[in-house]
Amino acid sequence: MLNLERLRTLDALAQHGSVSAAAEGLHVTTSAVSQQLAKLEREVGQRLLAKNGRGVRLTDAGRLLAEHAARILSQVELARSDLEAQRGRVVGELRLAAFPTAARGLFPAALAGLRARHPSLRLRSCELEPEAGVAGVVRGDLDLAVVLDWYNKPMPLPEGLVKASLLDDPADVAMPAGHRLADRAEVDLGEFAHDEWITWNEGEFCHEWLLFTLRSKGVEPIIGHRAAETHTQLRMVAAGLGVCVAPVLGRDPMPEGVVTVPVRQRVRRHVYVVWRADADRRPSIRAAVAALREAAETVGAETVGAETVGAPRENG
After folding, report:
1. Burial, 53: exposed, middle or buried (Cβ in 10 Å; 0-12, 13-18, 19+)?
2. Rounded mean pLDDT of 219-243?
3. CA gap 256, 20 in Å, rounded
4. What is the mean pLDDT of residues 269-297?
5. 86 — pLDDT class (breaks 50, 70, 90)
6. Higher-confidence position of 310 and 247
7. What is the DSSP string of the chain?
8. Any idea what the Cα angle at residue 88 is, between residues 87 and 89, rounded to 5°?
9. Per-residue b or e along 211-245, where b marks 16 or more CB atoms closer than 10 Å to that residue's CB
10. Vertex 59, ends 54 and 63: CA angle to 5°?
């Protein structure tokens, strides 16, 4: 009999390409990954790994078994979904992630509503940047992830995922109250060519979006400071250290001394939730999506305005 957890370890190695990355994805030590793979080799009686410089690579037998492992794990998820659907109850454990402002703006209401309606459902949530959230869903570490697209830069999604819209989130430029453009009704991003930007961390999807957008306007951004969380960025703006993009979702309360001005071209983020297609029939998934949409409608009515949200729509 092939051990399911060992197949999951092999699948992680095939997806991530190294023992250390597989360990990180599975939230275990590299030693645990190596031990599981060694036991799997003994079970099948063939070498699955070969040395490749300082790392390892899959042998032909390893690649073959990894392909089967991916299909087996998908079938296991389908079986779990069918059993949960057949039982018709929202039970078990549900693991969710969201990027920080969505975790702040949507999770409190959505998760509290889920807990009140479905007390037998165990909820586990965390903050993750969009790309990490998608990767977690693909790996099976997460059941759902709230992620985003920017209006001019969609985030590619792997095959096998389903998504549903939650809301469109407008973003302004936040600047110190004494800034030369603080009294304007609208601004153009090109007008900040000589300002220092407070942005997200290097390599993050939102940071790459900002560079892409400013450069498309002929502006080479001056990056002064980096911070992962919008509220940290806004506190730096309040201290006069630069300007930042400030989406509406999850940004309140605003620090004193900060002014937000809309962008003339209407910068927006599209916020949506993703999950694995093979888990689509799980009642807990459907309940969570409904709760997130309900929370998004409330956020839209209170902070964005009906003209910016509209009715949520299915995608994918």
Report:
1. exposed
2. 94
3. 44
4. 92
5. low
6. 247
7. ---HHHHHHHHHHHHHSSHHHHHHHHTS-HHHHHHHHHHHHHHHTS--EEEETTEEEE-HHHHHHHHHHHHHHHHHHHHHHHHHHHHT---EEEEEEE-HHHHHHTHHHHHHHHHHH-TTEEEEEEE--HHHHHHHHHHTS-SEEEEEEETTBPPP--TTEEEEEEEEEEEEEEEETTSTTTT-S-B-GGGGTTSEEEE--TT-HHHHHHHHHHHHTT---EEEEE-SSHHHHHHHHHTTS-BEEEESTT-PSPPTTEEEEEBTT--EEEEEEEEEGGGTT-HHHHHHHHHHHHHHHHHIIIII-HHHH-S--EE-
8. 95
9. bebbeeeebebeeebbbeebbebbbbbbeeebbbb
10. 115
Q: What is the pLDDT of residue 309?
A: 30
| φ and ψ of 305, to 5 deg | 105, 140
pLDDT tens track for 176-211: 999 999 999 999 999 999 999 999 998 888 999 999
The reply to whether the predicted model has a pTM over 0.85 is: no
Q: Does the structure show a pLDDT above 70 at 315?
A: no
Write out the two tokens for 80: 């779990």
Give the residue from 158, 136, 156 showing the smallest Cα distance to 145: 136
* Pairwise CA distance, residues 129 & 231, whole Å: 15
**What would the two tokens of residue 187 be?**
């601004």
